[in-house]
Amino acid sequence: MKVIFGPVNSRRFKKSLGIDLSPNEKCCNFDCLYCELGKAKLKYENNSNLSVEYIINELKEALKIHKDCDYISISANGEPTLYPYLDELIIKINEVKKNAKSLILSNASTIFDKNIQKALLNLDSVKLSIDSVNPKVFRKIDRTNIDINKIVQGIKEFSQIYKGELILECLVLDGINDDEKDFIALNDILKDIKATRLDLGTIDRPSDYNVKAASFEKLSKLASLITNIKVNIMSRNTNINKYDDLLKTISLRPLSSQEIDEKDIKMLDELVDKNIIKCVKINDINFYKLNKSNSN
Ligand code: SF4
């Protein structure tokens, strides 16, 4: 069974070695319209019979080859918090990970469970999805019978006790969960959630369902409605390769270096040199903002 994959390079999690807790089949309590794993029956338990010992031995072997990973990410062909020995697994990962950070990529469906919260407290980073706070829209996009209000309450509780990096993620589909009213409601909820940032993205690969990606303009507009937390737009279709486009985006909201292609960063640095925008470092990430002293 292949439980270790990668390392995968991404702007968000740099060089990341993955652990797949359901290597044989999709095991998820959601059936999202955007899922790249295809349609599947909802599952609420992970019965893969993977032992912690087996996973850790595989991880140790992989770490001998890939010594310089930034993250060890716990994911799954589905939802990793359904794995029955998560608590023990995280403790053991922390014992062998050396300089890498431990991370879980979860859909947040179990975050109201105190045992899950207790397990996740031991991770360096936790990524939780929140595609809509509107119950009707949430059920439409994530196709589950789990109550979004319970999930939101769980995220709030967890964020109050968690000391690591908490990243929220919202994946937006055209005409499905892109209503501005729902983002204003999300912003209001974010007042009570202590998170590092919200990653706002859309699909860039086909799904089994007939859904369309949100445009970069739409993502920018929705991001501008979120004022209670930092937002990163994660779209790969940004197409922001002209000064005008960059400036238009930055006038709506600060843009982080993680949202921008290497070639565009060079362009931004030129705008900084010209004193049109400025670059501010927050939590080791460069944010590009309009230089107000220059804009009338
Ligand atoms: S939570 Fe992830 S794995 Fe589960 S259906 Fe949604 S996209 Fe697929």
List the helices and strands and how they pair.
Elements: E1 4-10, E2 14-20, H1 52-65, E3 71-75, H2 86-96, E4 101-106, H3 114-120, E5 125-129, H4 135-142, H5 148-161, E6 165-171, H6 180-190, E7 197-201, H7 216-224, E8 231-233, H8 243-252, E9 255-256, H9 262-273, E10 277-282, E11 285-290
Parallel strand pairs: 2-3, 3-4, 4-5, 5-6, 6-7, 7-8
Antiparallel strand pairs: 1-2, 9-11, 10-11
Bound molecules: iron/sulfur cluster.
How would you describe what is shown here?
This protein has 296 residues and is α/β, with parallel strands linked by helices. It has a single domain, classed as Aldolase class I (TIM Barrel, Alpha-Beta Barrel), CATH 3.20.20. It is built from nine helices and eleven strands. The protein has helices spanning 52-65, 86-96, 114-120, 135-142, 148-161, 180-190, 216-224, 243-252, 262-273; strands at 4-10, 14-20, 71-75, 101-106, 125-129, 165-171, 197-201, 231-233, 255-256, 277-282, 285-290. An eight-stranded mixed sheet has the order 1-2-3-4-5-6-7-8. The protein has a three-stranded antiparallel sheet with strand order 9-11-10. α7 links the parallel β7 (197-201) and β8. α1 (52-65) runs parallel beside α2 and α2 (86-96) packs parallel to α3 (114-120). The longest helix has 14 residues, at 52-65. The chain is globular and about 60 Å long. 41% of the residues are buried.
